[in-house]
Specification:
By secondary structure, the protein is an alpha+beta fold. It has a domain of about 90 residues: Sandwich (Immunoglobulin-like), CATH 2.60.40.10. The protein is built from 16 helices and 7 strands. It has a 4-stranded antiparallel beta sheet. A hairpin with a 4-residue loop joins β2 and β3. The protein is globular and about 75 Å long. It starts with 7 loop residues before the first helix and ends in a 6-residue tail after the last helix.
């Protein structure tokens, strides 16, 4: 047992289920937004090819306020359209990335309603004679390939549907079909989702290989794969290396709230609770209704013997996700924290009124305890 109050094995047990739930579909992870008070601004637009203004589907658009570190990102739809709501009025750094295209960086002044923003990406130039095709070159996509996803897209979509339904084993064949037929966008995403399916089935070596392939195909530009590679390293109790990999993912996607939660867990396992707590708070700044961040805070405060904080954390957790994957452990932790609060107040029970202790007793007796 380390100073953090958790063994490394316990830490991996806690973060594995939230990884499977939170990164089930890449677009979900990439579309996390921060909760900004008094935010009434919005922005929308399209991402297109610079040569012919054709739309780019699933391009990643990120907004960042450099002065505060606030960030949010989303993916374009089939028409190349994107949108952000609930933005504070400020100057944003805009970054657009898409496999096979040059990275675009610009700035935009966001007021109440800003748009349409038209963001044009230039295609990377492939080598004239690609004798030895590297993973980076393999991600370069021709316009013709992007116009005709055909069977590859259908296989990819079918695999995603099966994965979302919980049929990890059934999804793998469709991702393999996508990988075999399509060297473009869907291939990298198919490797990632195949890795996620393998991960859910407990096939860690195969999952690691698939995530690494997704990272290679995107030139290291796919944050969800970095996050889950970090989790695999965590399972191997290589926490320092896991921290480095997760930090790399956060450099790609600084708006990822789940990435911050993963980072917090690794810091907690490394017995750095203050840094872990800061990462959890940063996750909540990015996404205020993230139950996993409150659960991490509860574990940190439990290790610090701060029972009132544990109770507050878990009340927020159950408010957001009463039947979450960690709910069983959370219920036991809540009961332990309430019991600790009661024991600490035994010395002045005689002078306390029933009303001053009533909320603690109610929690322990189950009137406010999640069933």
């Amino acid at each position: 047992m380390g100073a953090s109050g958790l063994t490394s094995v316990s830490t991996c047990r806690f973060i594995r289920p939230l990884a499977v739930a939170g990164l089930m579909f890449p677009a979900t992870c990439l579309a996390q937004s921060a909760s900004v008070e008094s935010a009434s601004g919005s922005a929308w637009g399209r991402v297109v090819r610079a040569t012919n203004d054709r739309p780019l589907r699933h391009a990643r658009v990120e907004l960042l306020i450099p002065s505060t570190g606030w960030a949010s990102s989303t993916l374009t739809d089939g028409s190349g359209k994107f949108g952000f709501a609930g933005l504070s009025q400020a100057t944003y750094q805009v970054t657009v990335t898409e496999p096979g295209y040059e990275r675009l960086e610009s700035t935009a002044e966001i007021t109440r309603k800003t748009g349409p923003l038209v963001l044009r990406l230039r295609k990377m130039e492939a080598p004239a004679t690609p004798i030895n095709v590297s993973p980076m070159n393999d991600s370069v996509v021709s316009v013709q390939e992007l116009r005709s996803p055909g069977k590859s897209q259908k296989a990819f979509d079918k695999g995603v549907k099966l994965l979302l339904k919980g049929d990890a084993a059934g999804s793998i064949a469709y991702f393999d079909r996508t990988i075999a037929k399509d060297p473009s966008y869907y291939r990298a995403r198919a490797y990632y989702d195949k890795g996620l399916a393998r991960f859910r089935l407990g096939h860690t070596p195969e999952a690691e290989q698939a995530f690494q392939k997704a990272i290679d195909l995107t030139g290291g530009g796919y944050a969800p794969a970095d996050f889950l590679m970090g989790l695999i390293l965590c399972q191997m109790q290589q926490f320092r290396q896991a921290e480095v990999v997760i930090q790399k993912g956060l450099e790609i996607d600084p708006g990822s709230a789940l990435g911050k939660v993963f980072l917090g867990w690794t810091q907690f396992a490394l017995n750095r609770p203050a840094e872990a707590e800061r990462s959890a708070q940063q996750a909540l700044f990015r996404k205020a209704n993230l139950p996993e961040a409150y659960y991490l805070l509860a574990q940190i405060h439990h290790a610090q013997h701060n029972s009132p904080a544990v109770v507050a954390d878990l009340q927020n957790y159950f408010r957001l996700d009463p039947n979450g994957l960690e709910s069983g452990d959370a219920k036991a932790l809540l009961a332990t924290a309430v019991q600790g609060m009661r024991k600490s107040s035994l010395h002045n029970r005689a002078s306390n009124s029933r009303g001053s202790r009533g909320w603690q007793d109610a929690l322990l007796n189950g009137s406010n305890m999640p069933e």
